[in-house]
Write a structure and sequence with these properties.
By secondary structure, this protein is α+β, with helices and mostly antiparallel strands. It has 4 helices and 11 strands; from the N terminus they run αααβββββββαββββ. The strands form 2 sheets. The chain has an 8-stranded antiparallel β-sheet with strand order 3-4-5-6-11-10-9-8, with no helix packed on it. A 3-stranded antiparallel β-sheet has the order 2-1-7.
Length: 198
């Protein structure tokens, strides 16, 4: 959907240039150019603005399953299962998610381990890539097989970066963090969907 918006803006700019034609006045041409420049800067501004958590979730998929917000285990569907053991965490409880019996990531819940069920809202997703699961999570086409530069190409400019942690804050307090290793490999991807209320 985002590509379509960019394409529309650039097509509009292209039409504006072709409408100036051969016999038009130079002042008309410069007015159209100014308009195109303003449109281009609006696109750049939009690409660096914060996402909502729901909009960011729609750009993330796990084993081909596109996420949404709010998200529950029931939304994953066939092939996915939760570990039989959940452990307590500082935010509530954490449990591993499997796809076709292979570990994919860990889900965070704001409840006790006993309260985890198929319809409980997932608060966060924690993914540490290994040799067998590096491509299981995709962020708008970016996976842990890619170098960090690809993340910005796919998702836009992060709201914060310190050359190790690349953060995309959402306008409703969610957060995506991608942690880069010194060798250029991806250490982890964390998506906070339901922040703890202070």
């Amino acid at each position: 959907m985002r590509k379509n918006r960019f394409l529309s803006v650039f097509l509009a700019a292209g039409i504006a240039f072709t409408m100036t034609g051969c016999g038009s006045k130079s002042s008309d041409s410069s007015a159209k150019s100014d308009s195109a420049v303003k449109s281009e800067s609006a696109v750049k501004e939009e690409s660096s603005s914060a996402y909502t958590t729901a909009a960011l979730a729609e750009k993330i998929s796990i084993c081909g399953k596109q996420l949404k917000s709010p998200l529950t285990f029931a939304d994953f569907g066939e092939g996915f299962k939760l570990d039989s053991y959940a452990q307590e965490s500082t935010t509530g409880a954490m449990i591993d998610l499997f796809y076709n019996n292979e570990l994919v990531c860990t889900l965070d819940y704001h409840c006790t381990p006993d309260e985890i069920n198929d319809n409980q809202k997932i608060a966060g997703i924690y993914f540490t890539p290994n040799d067998f699961n590096r491509d299981k999570i995709s962020v708008n086409g970016f996976t842990a097989n890619d170098k960090i530069e690809v993340l910005e190409e796919k998702l836009g400019t992060p709201t914060a970066s310190n050359k190790t942690v690349y953060t995309y804050d959402t306008s409703d307090n969610g957060k995506l963090e991608v942690i880069d290793m010194p060798d250029g490999s991806i250490h982890s991807i964390v998506f906070i969907m339901e922040p703890i209320e202070k």
